Every structure is written in C-alpha cells, then in structure tokens.
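During the reporting period the student researcher (J.K.) took over the structure-prediction task from the postdoctoral fellow and processed the backlog of single-chain submissions. One of the processed entries is reproduced below for the supervisory committee.
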Amino acid sequence: MKILIKTLVVTVVISLMPIVISELAPEYDGFNLEAAEETKKKKTRKRVKLPSKKAQKLLQTVQPFLEEEMWAEAIEMLAVIGTDPKFTETDRARMHWYFGYIYFAQEKYDLAIIEYEKLLRSEGSDFKLKNQARFSLAQLAFIKEDYRSSIKYLLAWIEEEDEPSSQGYSLIATAYFQLEDFRNAKTFIETAIELAESRDIPIKVVDEETGEEVETGETKKAVARENDYLLKIAVYSELKKRS
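J.K. obtained the following structure tokens:
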C-alpha cells in the first residue's frame, strides 16, 4: 500500500506541470469580448476586466514565443507593461499572470508564486484571472509539499468557480491524504469521482470514408481517472486500519 501511495503522489506531482504548459494563454482577437459577455450572464455581480488595445497587441505578439517556449524573449517583451505608464493596472495584472505561467513552466516555482500572489493583490485583476491564479498557486503549493496552503487555495477556487472540475477535488483529497486526514480525503475523493462519472461524453465512431472520428449524437457516462479510484481504495484502507 505504501508503494501504491508513493506512486500516486508522484503521478499527481508530475501531472501538474502539463496542466500549466498545455494551457493556452488568453487570446485577444475578439475572444475575450465574447467570453466577457458569457461570463457576465453567469456572474452578473462580477465584471471581467479586459486589457487595453495596446496590451492586446503586445500579448498577441508574445503568443508565438510562448508556444515555442522562448521564455526569455517573452519575458523581455512583457516587461514593458510593468515600466510603461501608458499601460493600465489591468494590463499589469495580465503581465503577472504571464510571468507566473512562464516561471511555472520553467520550474521556477518560487518566482511563479510571487507573480501569482501579486496578481491576487492587484486591483486590475478580475475574478476569472484571480481564480486561475488560485488554482496555479494550489498546484505550486502541492509541488512544494505545502499541503495546507494547497487546500486553502483550492477551497477558495471552488468557491468562485461556476463548475469546479473533478480534478480540483481530487487534488484536495490527495493533499488531505498526505496530511493523514483520511476522513476529509474520503469526502473529497468521493466528490471527485461522482463529478467525473456524472459527465456525459459523446460517443464517436470512425467514418469509413474519411477515416476520421465523428460523433453519433449519442452519449455515455464518463469515468473518473484511474488514480482517483486507486486513491479511494487507499483512503478506505487507511480508515479501516483506524476503525
């Protein structure tokens, strides 16, 4: 069982980096305006803050450097936002988000934490950007084995998220397991699995003519990740020992 748990924790830590690296940085060619309108419908009391047109152009220019992982060049370009008074506080909040993203991808965790914390304190950041930062801070805290901080950030993230993912609950469960708080671990891993299994996913088949997958129009229930089921087994095993 100890080997199983060690494997689970290592797997969780390894899985955190691709979440950040594969996350596309925000685009600004009309995307945010549409997103802002959708968000306003969902969260009428919260306003999405858009970067200035000057910042949008700069961020569009930076995008290819991020995709090619040309981190030094991206940082140099983004740093202008922090020194040029023509940029707004909202622009600078975006800069902190990007810096956090870059440092996380470079495994410079302490620097990433500093940038995300600056974003949370910034008056120019909106609820959506702040919540992205909270999730990233939770990931970083977990990697640094600061499990209580990871839980704190994730609970705040859940509070602000319209539809929290099962992955967030799973990470909380894993953090509680590391703290040997198995009752809370049980609660959160069961929630994670329940959320994952409640999703409907489209059934796809291979088109004989094109060879491509196409949706049939029917759906099936999703399943949770294998690690979630393994963690549930481990939690129940620990609780049984203590009963």
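The committee noted the following: Strands lie at 200-206, 213-221.
J.K. will present the remaining backlog at the next meeting.
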